[in-house]
Amino acid sequence: MVNDFDRIVNAWNSLLDEPGALTQTARYRICGSSNFGAYLAIRFDDKAPILEIGPITPDILKDAPLPIIKGVDSELSYHSQEMFLSLTLKQTASIDIFLTLAARLTDELSDVEHPITGYGVIRKVLIVWRAFFSSEKKMLSISEQTGLAGELILAILFMDNSIEVATVIRAWKGSERSHHDFQLPLASVEVKATIAHNIETVSISSLRQLDPTGTQKLFLAQVAMDSHDHGDQTLPHLVKNIRQRLSSFPAYRLEFEEKLLASGYRDKDESHYSQQSFQVRKVRSFCVDDNFPKLTHNSIPEGIVEATYQINLGTVALQALTFDELILAISSNQND
User: Fold this and answer.
1) Coil, strand or helix: which one is 107?
2) Is residue 38 part of a domain?
3) CB–CB of 256/294 below 8 Å?
4) Strand, helix or coil at 262?
5) b/e string for 276-312 if b means 16 or more Cβ within 10 A?
6) Pairing of strands 182-183, 309-312
7) Which domain of life does this protein belong to (predicted)?
8) Which residues, listed in sequence order, are joined to residue 284 by a DSSP beta bridge?
9) CA angle 308, 213, 209 (to 5 degrees)
């Protein structure tokens, strides 16, 4: 099964191979009905990628203009005397973001029949997506790579231990800057990844991070890894592993791609990330209950509104769960 994301990437690669005069464009229909649809296009003079959406009428744009997106020009174009909204990518280094946006629009516009409805959907999506294009963020730092690797490794371990692929992708919240990295149906898991030799100390970045409010159970999972200059367990390898698992889950493949972008991971930086391999040394977890050392809003003096702190896991080492025990705990609805 070819999902929308891969289909659009393949379509773009095909457009790149199309012959054409400098004044011409080539189009590929990616979604829509006979009344309204979206096309991926290429302008041959500068190889600029374009999303053409329509047909529309000028009055649709009058009361609700599109948001300004850095590196993307919007204008009106004509085909067969019909008007289309054209989004042209000016920053070619952002082609991966642009094609992921095309996949999201394909999904959102799949059942749209009328231009007014379609334009409302497009505007809503672009308001969210302008943040992806406006970011000045460079490549992930070593600590950010370590954190992302730990989350992806834990996601793969969950999938390998009978938690459904779609459930894991929905549960992954690390890129959303949520309080907890995984929010599963029966439990939440906060991930602490480290390549340090000393794994007894973990840093907690807020009073919400170990606050169990709103979840049935909360666990802190520590993924201790060794970092090597060469090896197979690189960030690109972990990403590819999950992409392959999502080949039969097109909607969740798109969600995964969006969360990767939100985490700061870009395929264009793959060669840089391939220089560091993460070998799992140990995975252990702790139930964050009344006996676990933590600070929350309910446990601090009045007047303190935020805090960062460190926990010595050596003081609760005897409470550590194996990974199999964690899987049982987050998969079971029975009371402790």
Assistant:
1) helix
2) yes
3) no
4) helix
5) bbbebeebbbbbbeeebebbbeeeeeeeeeeeeeebe
6) unpaired
7) Bacteria
8) 222
9) 25
pTM (2 d.p.): 0.88
- Beta carbons within 8 Å of 256's beta carbon, 6+ residues apart: 169, 172, 242, 243, 246
Tokens of 247: 């080949």
* Amino acid (1-letter code) at residue 5: F
Say if residue 202 is in the same domain as residue 312: yes
Look up the domain containing 11 and give its range. 4-134
Residue 143 φ/ψ region, left for φ over 0, alpha for ψ in the -120 to 50 degree band, beta for the rest: alpha
Same domain? 192 vs 315 = yes
Distances (CA, A) of 195 to 177, 249, 280, 330: 22, 32, 9, 25
Cis peptide before 58 (omega within 30 of 0): no
Tokens 């969210």 correspond to what residue? 128
Indicate the helix (H) or strand (E) that contains 130. Answer: helix 115-134
How do strand 82-89 and strand 48-56 relate by DSSP bridges?
Answer: antiparallel
| pLDDT per residue as tens digits for the range 149-189 | 999 999 999 999 989 999 999 999 987 777 899 999 999 99
* Distance, C-alpha 112 to centroid of its chain: 25
Q: Report the domain count for the chain.
A: 2
- 114/186 same-domain check: no
Q: Count CB neighbours of 7 within 10 A.
A: 18
Tokens representing residue 251 in the block:
């909607």
